[in-house]
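Q: Entry one of two.
A:
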Amino acid sequence: MNVTLLAIAGGVIILGLGAYAGYLLLQVKKQTELQKQHQALAIEKRNANIYENVNTLCLAGIQGQCDLSELSIRIYYIMDNVQGDERVDFDAEYPATSELFHIVENMARGEDRQALEKKERMEQNLARHKAETRLNDTIIEELKVLQKKVQPLNNQINIQMI
């Protein structure tokens, strides 16, 4: 009788521990799903912020308020930070802007540009100007396409902790 009683008590304890372990596993699963949802929302919010900036840059480029070389550098680097499914292969989708970026990305800018010798600075200016002139119309069209692409995605999302 004592053995039967001990076996029943042991079985009840094991059953209780199993139920508790199942409950803990369910809680971990819920927490993991919640973390994935928060991560997806954070990525979506970050992308929306990026698209807002790209939209502004596209508008400045279309209206001629910014040098196309500087614009191509900024847009290329900003769009490289897009995450998730909206990630863009910029070289394939916007070849002219990408080409100008690859031409001017290693050229000196700002204080580094002022430190260059006059001849070297003029050579860089000439190369930059030739590339901008040659690619101007195509880049403007690409900027219009990019602006239309990012505009509907530019939805600010308010994230609240649950």
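Q: Entry two of two.
A:
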Amino acid sequence: MTDLPERIKSTDWQSVTDSMHKNGYAILSNLLSDHECDQLISGYSQPEHYRKTVIMARHRFGLGEYKYFNYPLPELLHTLRTQIYPHLAPIANAWFKALHIDTSFPLEHQVFLQQCHANDQKKATVLILKYGEGGFNTLHQDLYGNLYFPIQIVLMLSEPEKDFTGGEFVLTQQIPRAQSKATVLKPKKGDILIFTTNFKPEKGTKGYYRVNMKHGVSEVKTGNRYALGIIFHDAEN
């Protein structure tokens, strides 16, 4: 993991920025090694890492389960969260400026977390998800409080068509006064998917307007699908 910061730094962040502005998502291919993915999966059965387990069917969120990590985060996850955030904050600031929202995000993640904590949002939101056969996740947004960062990431820990089938990532775009648009993505093991948490600006004839977006996971047909979500804001106490 010692070269992970260099992998993050050497990413073509201009292409990521362009894709986020255009589509509301971007994929970083092979950012994590198979070994790093397997290590995260192996930790799923170690309860000391987690503050809470959610059985999705109990809350009508879908079928599967996920676990929230507790602080301090494992080093790999802390590195990803703190070193990817500075590349995404300028995108978030550009979006809010285009939509005339009077909010500016600091360029350092620790400063943003201090703002979360001052707003009584202190619980870790990084989570690992497991879906078995028939598992799925309904369309949703991960907000956790009044203070939120509008971009998040998912790390694919399992290999599609090998470890599982089905289970595509679904991103919907709710276009004002029109039918919704769905995008289906299939990131591979080790890929990181960056996407909008709840909205993005879209340019129209009279300037920018807000397009609301939700995400979910389609039904897993066979096998087990593991993924890890990194939300950059903390949750309300």
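A: Comment on entry two: The CA atoms of residues 99 and 208 lie 6 Å apart. The mean pLDDT is 95.
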